[in-house]
Amino acid sequence: MNLLCVSLLVLVAVITGTLGCPSDFLGISSSCVKVVIAAGIGERPVSWKVAREGCKALGADLAVMNVSSKVEHISAHIDKVFPNEASYTFWVGGHKVNGQWKWVTDQTINLKSNLWVPNTPKKDDRISFALLVPADSLHGRRYLNENGEGGWAPGYICEI
Q1: Could you tell me what percentage of the chain is helix, strand and coil, using 3-state DSSP and rounding each to the nearest 5?
Q2: Are 78 and 62 spatial neighbours (Cβ–Cβ below 8 Å)?
Q3: Which of 13, 51, 82, 119 fits as disulfide partner to 91, beta carbons 3.0 to 4.6 Å?
């Protein structure tokens, strides 16, 4: 098979989401993600640590949301597949380690990116974790926000 054919197959796989992802995961770019609704209306939400354990039980970890295209794709997926949960917040793989924001992959998080809710995260040493929060009407996608230790969210996003 020549390089052009291989390139076309990879392009089709990326577009169609067939990246060899498990059937309950969605192929986005070069990763597989799963949106998990952990608590319905009136049910108890989960902590970041419980969400991470849930992802690990699936052979994954909390998602790294470091590019806007990934946030946009996941936002559109949530809106389409979970319309009743559009106002939900979702744990993702960001956390503050010794005052530094890192992804669960140990990559440093860009605090100046437009992925964050304006004026966040705060520069302090308290323990915090990253959430993907509902879209605003202006931009139509979700944003990263921070929540302190002891915070809760009804959903989380896993990534392989």
Answers
A1: 25, 30, 45
A2: no
A3: 51
| Cis bond before residue 45 (omega within 30° of 0) | no
Query: Taking the C-alpha atoms of 78, 129, 66 and 20 in order, what is their torsion angle to the nearest 10 degrees?
Result: -60
Mean pLDDT in the chain? 85
**What was the pLDDT predicted at 136?**
66
Tell me if 140 sits within 8 A of 75, measured CB to CB: yes
- pTM of the entire predicted model: 0.84
Model confidence at 35: pLDDT above 70? yes
Task: Provide the token pair at 117.
Answer: 């809710």
pLDDT over 70 at 4, yes or no:
no
Helix (H) or strand (E) holding 102: strand 100-103
3-159: CATH number: 3.10.100.10
Distances (CA, A) of 145 to 1, 86, 129, 151, 153: 46, 16, 8, 12, 12
pLDDT exceeds cutoff 80 at 137: no
Token digits for 123? 């520069």
What pLDDT shows up at residue 17? 45
